[in-house]
Amino acid sequence: MMEKMSDLLSVEQARQTILKSFIAVKTEIIPSINSLGRILAEPVIAPQDFPTFANSSMDGFAVISSDLQCATLSQPVQLEIIEEIPAGVVPQKIVRPGQAARIMTGAMVPQGADCVIPVELTLELDGGSQVLCNEFVQPGQFVRPIGLDFHQGNQLIPAGTQMKPHHLGLLASVNVTHIQVFCKPKIALLATGNELISAGTSQSPGKIIDSNSIMLASFLEQAGAIVVHLGIALDTLEDVQSKLEDGVNADVDLIISSAGVSVGKFDFVRTVIAQQGKIDFWRVNIRPGKPLAFGNFQGIPYIGLPGNPVSSFVTCLLFVLPVIKTLMGFGNPLETRLSARLLSPLESDGRESYLRGIASLSSSGEIQVHLIDSHQGSGNLSGLVGSNALLIVPSGVKSLPFGAQVKIILIDELRNESSEIF
Ligand code: AMP
Ligand code: MG
Fold first, then answer.
1. Of all residues in the chain, what percent are helix, strand and coil, respectively (each to 5)?
2. How confident is the model at residue 3 (pLDDT cuts 50, 70, 90)?
3. How far, CA to CA in Å, does 409 sit from each of 334, 359, 391?
4. What residues have CB less than 8 Å from 123, skipping those under 6 apart?
5. Of ligand 1's atoms, which has the minimum distance to the CA of residue 235?
6. What is the pTM (predicted TM-score) of this model?
7. 304 lines ligand 1 (CB under 6 A)
8. Pocket test for ligand 1, best of 229, 258, 268, 283 (most atoms within 8 A of CB)
């Protein structure tokens, strides 16, 4: 039977159908120091003012500003040095008119003083008992007052923020030791196919190594998921079913399989899902990756990715990573798409295509993209590795000229060698 493109779901429709089945609900309280990459479920409120005490932002002398009213280089003001205040030490004396306390960066400003004159504007006399001040300093200058950065009760980090190193630093600075975050999604991963052998085992004729499991597991873990490996299922109803049941028993949020969802004689996965759950759709208008299935197995959401490794990667990026991001608590789970100028004309077949390309930043600041030299076959993982971007050809478009504006998804750093592509 001839297949019409209108029979296929668009990428957009498929993504919406999948995403509306997921919502982030599970949260947990964890030590802040273990929270890198996690999404805050509750805002963090400042438990105290910061800084907690007025401190000096310079090495110099804590003084009374009005004492320096007339200080100039030619007519410096002489003050008596009453003590030395290193960082971490509580001042012992009150600074009175005519006096100064030697102070280090971060040290407590002593009572009486209202500013700090930097050491560069001073000259010590009499073996350090006196100091000449060469300039006027405004009240408050070079002093970081209590609550300069924030006050107790201020919102420090809003809910929905992904924790990065600087967030962890801020929490540490005010002793917020535990925070509430969304739970990591737990994803079961199954490879299917009689031809598959595990990576690291010896090769034999007709067999291929299961590269999808390793690629997909690391992709999911990189995105923040916990992966439960279900192994390799043979192309039999029984084996597929029993391995999928292992996923159900592992209490996962989502089961993913690769291969076996197409129309081949041994493509049993779809049959098992349909028998023990539901198939919502199993074909999408995308290249690579048309045989993409979504449904549930015994009530657990299920996504069936295509077997060809590049198709598996691209569909994981487009259909699975947004689910992980949703479950992790991201407000916007969709990937960023950049505009780029096409530097090689291209042909397509009218399906929405995600071609392997190389994107770079030109000297004028424009993003440019061209296709990899190698072929665009959906089994060509080395071509994917040689690319840094997926170049999107919209549905219905059969060719694009040199210079056309296209959208890209970066899968690696943007290159910065505009000369290389000419
Ligand atoms: P299928 O969807 O079962 O027809 O598989 C499509 C293609 O992907 C075939 O060439 C398979 O050998 C290949 N393939 C399936 N599963 C994997 C896997 N886990 N790793 C690498 N290649 C695979
Ligand atoms: Mg197969």
1. 25, 30, 45
2. low
3. 11, 9, 7
4. 76, 131, 132, 134
5. 3
6. 0.90
7. no
8. 258
